[in-house]
């Protein structure tokens, strides 16, 4: 959805009026597509923010739970930790521009594998990471060869940037779709470039 819209219910101390209003504003910005509306749309925009804020206050007041309130400082610390984890993905790729990646193709190929391993670490699923680590052992040779073919390296840089942006926006559905498409694109490339129509492996040029 939007990184600035967070759960406001069942916190100690409770959500403030400013937080309710800020979440309402981000919601209206998201669905309207306007960060700052034009003069012609300003009144409708503000009216929508007021309505969403009113509905949110009503909802927060009506909800009931037996769960203990969450500590705001603890939750804030968790958000900072998650942001740092996602930031580590950017640091991995910071030295590689689209112009430089082809001159450091072997190094980038290894970083590419580590990038995907880091994505799995962020899932906090030990079983998934354990299964994938075995697959990555076989992926290294494939990834090293495909990175040098066509514009695969440059496309990889762009794909990874979009994945990071989705994670930073806390848009899990988009991040999942982008990772899946990125992986399937590699599969499709291997099928086209490496496999003959009869299923046999193509001879590598040179």
General shape: elongated
List the uncertain runs: none
Strand order of the largest sheet: 1-2
Global mean pLDDT: 81
Structural class: mainly alpha
Strand content: under 5%
Query: For the terminal residues, how far apart are their CA atoms?
Result: 49 Å
> How many β strands by DSSP?
2
Number of domains: 2
Give descriptors for this structure.
two-stranded parallel ribbon, elongated, 206 residues, 68% helix, 2 domains, mainly alpha
Describe the structure.
This protein is mostly helical. The chain folds into two domains: 11-68, no CATH class; 79-194, no CATH class. The chain contains seven helices and two strands, in the order βααβααααα. The protein has helices at residues 17-32, 39-62, 72-93, 105-122, 126-146, 152-168, 172-194; strands spanning 11-12, 70-71. A two-stranded parallel sheet has the order 1-2. Helix 4 runs antiparallel to helix 5 (126-146).
Topology of this structure?
Layout: E1 11-12, H1 17-32, H2 39-62, E2 70-71, H3 72-93, H4 105-122, H5 126-146, H6 152-168, H7 172-194
Parallel strand pairs: 1-2
């Amino acid at each position: 959805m939007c990184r600035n819209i967070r759960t406001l219910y069942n916190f100690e101390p409770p959500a403030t009026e400013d937080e309710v209003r800020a979440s309402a504003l981000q919601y209206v910005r998201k669905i309207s597509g306007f960060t700052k509306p034009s003069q012609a749309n300003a009144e409708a925009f503000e009216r929508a923010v007021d309505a969403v804020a009113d509905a949110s206050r009503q909802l927060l007041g009506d909800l009931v739970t037996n769960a203990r309130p969450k500590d705001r400082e603890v939750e804030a610390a968790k958000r900072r930790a998650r942001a740092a984890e996602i930031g580590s993905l950017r640091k991995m790729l910071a030295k590689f521009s689209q112009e430089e990646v082809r001159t450091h193709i072997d190094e980038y190929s290894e970083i590419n594998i580590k990038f995907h391993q880091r994505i799995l670490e962020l899932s906090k699923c030990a079983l998934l990471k354990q299964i994938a680590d075995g697959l990555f052992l076989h992926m290294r040779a494939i990834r090293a060869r495909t990175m040098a073919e066509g514009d695969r390296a440059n496309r990889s840089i762009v794909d990874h940037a979009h994945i990071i942006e989705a994670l930073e926006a806390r848009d899990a559905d988009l991040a999942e779709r982008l990772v899946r498409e990125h992986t399937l694109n590699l599969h499709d490339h291997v099928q086209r470039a490496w496999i003959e129509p009869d299923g046999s492996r193509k001879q590598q040029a040179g």
